[in-house]
Amino acid sequence: DLDLHDYDELLSSFLVAIERATFTPPYQTIYYLYKLRYQKEDSRVHNCIKMRKCSDYFRTQLRNFVPSKPKVYAAAIQEMHQLPLCTSPIEKIQCISTSLRHIYLALFQTISAADTISLELLCFNFGVLEILPVLMFVLEASNMKTAFSEVMFIQDQISAYCKNKDQLFYFALFQLAVSITEACREDEETLHDICLRANICSQKHIANTNTKSTEGVK
């Protein structure tokens, strides 16, 4: 008999195979249409990414672990570089999930200089306010030019059969990071102002996003 984790893994494998067959042939055309539709949003996000604006906000206004050099999160950045190359929604979500797992592991190694704890126990011992600044730093370091289009493509095309709570949690974090980056405008405004412009009710949204996964990280 399959346990829940094995079932999720099997379903995920089927989804990857099905989506590859479905999306790979027309992907370039579909993705081009998304980039065309969200060109302005992509441009705003990329401008903020180039100026490193959001990680500076977090570094000065919130308790965080954003480093001055990206080498600590090199594995997460490398994985984030692969996101535009993935041709199906589930593969893109898996890419985001892998990048965030690298972030969690790097955080733990940075804080405790050890790697003996399991990633399953580690991942949800950090809240959104610890993870989000680093995710935005990784997004900036990856210099992604189409982050907003990536979010919209995944959001629109994701299969209803994708029910892995951890992967959906990671995607929600990525959506939040991109939304805040896209809403960034003035040099003097506060992070709270940015969140309001992004239509994020910070306390409620953070509370919902920070809900612990019951599945853990396998």
Notes on the protein architecture:
The chain is mainly α. The chain has a single domain (4-209), classed as Up-down Bundle (Glutathione S-transferase Yfyf (Class Pi), Chain A, domain 2), CATH 1.20.1050.80. 68% of the residues lie in helices and 0% in strands. Residues 201-218 have low confidence and may be disordered.
DSSP, total strands? 0
Q: Termini separation (Å)?
A: 18 Å
| Alpha-beta classification | mainly alpha
In DSSP terms (H or I, runs of 4 or more residues), the helix count works out at 12
**Rg for CA atoms:** 17 Å
The first-level CATH class is given as Mainly Alpha
C-alpha geometry:
globular
Helix content: 55-70%
Taken in chain order, the helices and strands follow as HHHHHHHHHHHH
CATH superfamily: VPS9 domain
Major sheet:
none
Mean pLDDT: 74
Going by CATH, the architecture would be Up-down Bundle
Number of separate domains: 1
Strand content bin: under 5%
Protein name: VPS9 domain-containing protein
Organism: Vannella robusta
Domain VPS9: 39-190
Pfam families: VPS9 (PF02204)
